[in-house]
Specification:
InterPro entries: AlkB_hom8_N
Shape: flat
Structural class: mainly alpha
Radius of gyration: 20 Å
Protein name: Alkylated DNA repair protein AlkB homologue 8 N-terminal domain-containing protein
Number of helices: 5
Order of helices and strands: EEEEHHHHHEE
GO molecular function: 2-oxoglutarate-dependent dioxygenase activity; methyltransferase activity
Distance between the termini: 24 Å
Amino acid sequence: MVVDFRRAQSDHSPLFIDGSPVEIVKSTKFLGVHLAENFTWSLNTTSITKKAQQHLYFLRRLRKAHLPPPILTMFYRGTIKSNLSSCITAWFGNCTVSDRKTLQWIVRTAEKIIGVSLTSITDMYTTRCIRKANNIVDDLTHPSHTLFTLLPSGKRVLQVGGW
């Protein structure tokens, strides 16, 4: 995949590895996350939404089988929520409003099926980011450790350096 932000797009000369040309693609899947050459996350969101809708079908089937809400919630957390929050700290912050609404629609649909209140997609993202920041603060060997310091209360993290 070639990432080129120049205004005047030009053809790139082929890259050869061991005498074989490397194929240039518009997008790729790496560690379960769809990356596009223009760094938009719509392809990734579409993939996540498609998987989540498939799992919603099974959630509806379980509801029709009269399973109690705690079991349905456990199924939701193990399949739908884990899918929605996979690598969420990497991609959710740059999602379009439309993509965020689509993802939240999945959560609301699951709420209606189960009959209980569930964590919103934005809260999932915020929770994961805070947890990641706290892990960086606690790990003295982390390359980004110096970018964060605890406030005097010791309960909140202050970002020192810029990203």
